[in-house]
Amino acid sequence: MSTIKEPTKTVLITGATSGIGAALLQQYNNNGFQVIACGRNAIQLNMLKNQALQTCAFDITCAAEIKANAQHVGELDVLILNAGNCRYINNAKQFDAELFNEVITTNLTSLGWLLKYLLPKVKPGGQVVFVSSSATILPFPRSEAYGASKAGMDYLAKSLRLDLVEHNIGVSLVHPGFIKTPLTDKNDFPMPFLLTGAEAANRIFKGVQSKKHYIHFPKRLTLLLKLFSFLPSSLWQSIILRKHNA
Ligand SMILES: NC(=O)c1ccc[n+]([C@@H]2O[C@H](COP(=O)([O-])OP(=O)(O)OC[C@H]3O[C@@H](n4cnc5c(N)ncnc54)[C@H](OP(=O)(O)O)[C@@H]3O)[C@@H](O)[C@H]2O)c1
Q1: What is the pTM of this model?
Q2: Which of 3, 129, 181, 219 is least buried, going by the fewest C-beta atoms within 10 A?
Q3: Ligand 1 pocket check for 184: Cβ under 6 Å
Q4: Whether residue 180 has its Cβ less than 6 Å from ligand 1
């Protein structure tokens, strides 16, 4: 009796040139997926050519660049919206509107364009994955821009999940804790339970394969944050400010 070979699956990853996205590329490659690697860094993308089915260079804040690249993208089994940045508001009283705008545009507004041009490529039975942050579980100081952008992403993902049921497309929302990447290498504060990019990618891959709605890790951090979120906000505020000002 001959066995029927499963067709090779395809995943598109935004932000595949660094950190979590680069680790996801490895993880999906190791598991037999064809990977479409996206980013802006042309040198880095060039180095990924032998590991990827295709590379796409575009800025996620530029609708025209996304549209042009999407024309060369075929059907997808998994679409991972991972690219993003993090910048902090250092002086709340002199609110940096330019920084706020940049972070919201990169992490949230871009999702509209990415969905417009890439969601039609996702096959029925496929999965859209949003890499958000455990920072949305509770408010943190200096995170007005980053937290708001990721909280917006959370709502978008949860609402989209409802509307994609009839199209048989699943949505996974990912809340990573602290992961060691160039993005967090810039942080000047302690990062408890820091994981490597490979550890994060492994957890995301397994969660997406099981079509989980919500993937969060490390649980010793995310569950603690969830527990804190049940406290009265005045209590949480005094704990976080005591830690922050220590
Ligand atoms: N690291 C953490 O602890 C952590 C925790 C929670 C959530 N996250 C989220 O995980 C995602 C990946 O973060 P990371 O830590 O892996 O960061 P990273 O190492 O700085 O990588 C960010 C990736 O996003 C891409 N990117 C950023 N802005 C872009 C733009 N305008 N257009 C196209 N691509 C853009 C970068 O591409 P180029 O370099 O090619 O420009 C890069 O590949 C982010 O959404 C972040 O918010 C990270």
Answers
A1: 0.97
A2: 3
A3: yes
A4: no
The contacts of residue 181 (CB under 8 Å, 6+ apart) are: 18, 19, 20, 197
pLDDT digits (tens, 9 = 90+) for 47-104: 999 999 999 999 999 999 999 999 999 999 999 999 999 999 999 999 999 999 999 9
Q: Which residues contact 231 (CB under 8 A, 6 or more apart)?
A: 239
Atom of ligand 1 minimally distant from the CA of 84: 45
How far from each other are the two terminal CA atoms of the chain, in whole angstroms?
69
Q: Is the model's pLDDT at 2 over the cut of 90?
A: no
CA atoms of 153 and 167, how far apart (whole Å): 21
User: Residue 23 CA: which ligand 1 atom is closest?
Assistant: 16
195-241 residue pLDDT tens? 999 999 999 999 999 999 999 999 999 999 999 999 999 998 898 88
Q: How many CB atoms lie within 10 A of CB 11?
A: 27
For 10-221, the fitting CATH number among 3.10.20.740, 3.40.50.1820, 3.40.50.720, 3.20.20.70 is 3.40.50.720
Helix (H) or strand (E) holding 124: strand 122-131
